[in-house]
Amino acid sequence: NRTAMATASPLASTLPSGAHRHSKPRGASASKTRAPRSAPRARAAVEGARPSLSMPPLERDDNGVERLALRTDGWSFWEWRGHRCNYISAGETNDGPIVVLVHGFGAHSYHWRYTVPALARRGFRVYALCMLGYGWSPKVEEPYSMEFWGQQVIDFTRDVAGASPSDKAVVAGNSIGALAALYAASTAPEQCRGLCLVNSAGNFEEGAKPGPEKPTLAQKAVGQTKGPDGIRDPTDPNPRPYTALERAQEAIGRIVATGIFYFTKVRIKTILEQVYEYPVDDELVRSIALAAEDLGAVGTFYQLSLAGGRTRVTAGELLEKFNGPLMLLWGEKDPWMTPSKASRILEIKPDACYTPVVAGHCPHDDAPVECSAKLADWAEALPA
Question: Which of 63, 99, 218, 331 could form a disulfide with 3 if both were Cys (CB 3.0 to 4.6 A apart)?
């Protein structure tokens, strides 16, 4: 349990599992703003923080482990493609390497609530983003795909975290966030020091097709299971005319996605408990529920559920393309991304550092003390 781990050493949802630096996309900007400060909602304030260490408001959980305090209004923001996206940072003035953290499906930057302060205290400069469509970032209908989020990670790593060929970042991602991190690391290697896959989603089997291992219900309902060309871009200014069949299929797809959205919304804790090894606390449940209250969340969810179908690149192709240091931080009790997936990745990348922990699908939050320490130890040893 967390208490035992704390004394021994210093989201998940039912939804799909989902070479040269790119030029800055239209509307991208490195402008950053801080959210207005609100009264901390910590149950117990953390005392003794070093004045020189830049850190968001903290608290300790019921086992005495330090973590970020939940802020309902978010943390910091940056402009990306015209959208005000959220992120959390700590230790910006530290001298250690940059670490960028990427959440999974249905989660957000706060899902790294234990990792952010732990790594900052180890001397890292830590940045956790909310990908567009999630958490405290806007809920908008966009052509989401793995390439879409991967490009956002590339831009965030460069424009906000400040990574460059002379100051590369360690990029870590959980679940589908691991695939976004993999896309970023393999597509922009000039700014990546190393990659950590945390219970990665994706089909790494030989001959696997792009997208999810199984089509989502929304994909099936909308009749768009044959590839990305059949899925419309909701931002297309000149869309092709709809046929009567397409209109009917999209209407059914939205109805199905809406049903899944509300069914999942009332079962957040139950779902988390299915994939966590240790007890799930109310603050995590609350943080995920907050995002579901945002205006546009239902329409966004529909587009998110089609993201796998829009994806054109396979997980295996991205992995083959990546040639840098690789860590597999794996919760071995994960019922979704079982250790067999890690074994398959090791077949492709036998030099990867496999680090198993007794935890579920989100080991960084399920067994935070152990995972933060292992990630920090590995990252500290990487060559610049």
Answer: 63
